[in-house]
Each structure stands twice: as structure tokens, then as C-alpha cells.
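User: Fold this; C-alpha cells only.

Assistant: Input:
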Amino acid sequence: MPSRADGYAPCPRGGGRVWGYRTIHAMPRRDGTDPPAVSEKAARRIMGGEGPRPVCPKRPRRRSPHRGEPSEAPANLVERDFRAGAPNRPWPTDATRSAMDGYKRRPSPVIDRFDGMVVSRRLSRSPDAAMADGMPLDAIATPAPGETPTARSDRGCHYRRPGWFHIREEHGLVRSMSAKGRGPDNAAAEGFLGRPRNEFLHCRDWKDVTYDELHGRLAAYLTHHNETRTKKSPGRQSPVQYRRSLGLAA
């Protein structure tokens, strides 16, 4: 078998020096000649002994978002049952990202599963501590005294910071996290994030719209979502209208 001074096998017909022992073993068959009287193992052994090998980069190792987790994850208390018979029970939260005109946006809301109301929201250029800690701090004014909502999130590192632990302990929030690699476990939050994409973000020209302008428009949309956007489940009422009909809001 021919070899090169640099130790790599030549690859005819523009192979790019990426052929391994299986392809080298099968090449005579493709040329219409009789196959060699050696097995694939023999071809591999010859290539290993003579030195030629394909220049195939190693597949990059996928970085697991769960490696080096800063703390033990809490139990998955909610499972996939996001039904709520009263406000301030499960509070799913998540963050998403999209590229705008020269910058990236990361909205992150806290949702009340009772009626889909946006309890709090943050918009950030990066998933930083201000975004992660600001959401529960904005939301804790909603529950009545004695209520202990369950803050439901995925296993993102910004939900496992010491700031979250302190907020939970100080305000009595119950933490619940989805299992590793189980997107449906946090489907309530992820499903909500798809709604602003369709109704607010997509099919609009965002060229030359600054980050501050986007922040104002998104706040206006979420206000519309809470107060005037109707839903089928509560009888074609908005979350605010639904709570007023139940005597839960003024």
C-alpha cells in the first residue's frame, strides 16, 4: 500500500485523505476488479503498521450543560402536571434568545399556570444574575401572605446560583426543576415563549430598532397579553378579565 512521507495515506480521485480501512478495503470492488484476499481486519492491521491513516478530525465532544453543576438539583415536584386551581401555584419560568439588529435579546418571564398571566418579566442582553434574580424578586409581590408558589425551571446554571437560593429561603419559594435533557418537563414555560415569537417577533421589520425600543415594545405586548388578549380556556377572557370575573382582582 503506498504511503506518504508525512504518514498519511494518499486518497485518489479527490478523496481528501479521509478514507479509512473499510473504504480502502472496498476500493478494488468499486473499480470492477477482483476483491483482495484479505479481510477488513487485515487492511486495518496493514494500515496501522505502515502508518497511513485518514486525516479525519475527531468529532468534537458535546459540552454537557450539566457538567460541573454548582449544586444538587431539587426534585421534580411538578412533574408534567401544570394544572392549577388557584393563582400562584406553579410558576414556570425559562429564558430564550434571538438575534436582533446588531444585538441579542433574552426575555425571561414567570408564568402563573392558573390563567397564563405573566407575573414578572425581564429582558437582558445576556443570561446574567440581574435577569435570573430579578424575575422572582419582581414576582414575590403577587402572592398573598402565607402562599408559597413553586418556582419551576429547567436545570440552567442561572437558576442554580446562590442568589436563587437566598431568594427562595427569604421569601418561601419552593423550587422544582426538570430532569436532565427533558424539555417537556418545562413545557409550560417553553410553550409560552413561542407565543411572543409568533405574535410579536416574527413577520416584523426590526431593522434599526434599538434595544431600548425593543424593551418598550415587548413590555407593551406583555401588558396586552395580561389585560386584553383573550384565551379560549377562561371563556375568551384575558387573564385580568378572568380574575376580575372570579373576584380575584380589582
